[in-house]
User: Which sequence fits this backbone?
């Protein structure tokens, strides 16, 4: 093994290595372009929703002012700041979920697999399954200890 690492690459091996690197770079560029297109589509959809919400708010009539005779006007406070108009609530941008191959070990352990069917319930995450199994084992050991103790077998 050490002999293979110390020998320089042949011309064929270098050419193959360069081809593989070029292929990898091309795939990464395609993946980056795909992610950017998804992000652009999400941002366009978000902007469209915001514009629709703004148009809806603008088309609604302003509420009628309350009659002044119903309630006496409060005494004006000195140097009271003017209330700022509320901005349309922007939802947080939705980040696309990485595929299971792109996730780290910890991410894979705490996330469940997405349901494939429409009415299917998502499965448990692997970490959750491990915790349940360990709890059951602990319970069985505790019960065995309690039973043998009550029988005077310790």
Assistant:
């Amino acid at each position: 093994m050490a002999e293979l690492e110390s020998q320089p690459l042949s011309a064929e091996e270098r050419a193959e290595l360069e081809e593989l690197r070029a292929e990898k770079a091309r795939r990464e560029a395609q993946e980056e372009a795909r992610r950017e297109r998804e992000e652009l589509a999400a941002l366009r959809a978000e902007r469209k929703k915001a514009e629709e919400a703004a148009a809806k708010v603008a088309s609604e009539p302003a509420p009628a002012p309350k009659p002044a005779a119903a309630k006496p006007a409060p005494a004006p406070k000195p140097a009271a700041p003017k209330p700022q108009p509320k901005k349309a609530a922007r939802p947080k941008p939705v980040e696309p979920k990485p595929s299971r191959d792109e996730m780290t070990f910890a991410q894979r352990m705490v996330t469940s697999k997405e349901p494939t069917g429409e009415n299917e319930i998502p499965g448990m995450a692997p970490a959750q399954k491990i915790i349940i199994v360990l709890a059951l084992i602990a319970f069985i050991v505790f019960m065995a200890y309690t039973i043998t103790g009550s029988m005077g077998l310790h």
User: Anything to note?
Assistant: The mean pLDDT is 80. Residues 122-154 form one domain. The radius of gyration is 32 Å.
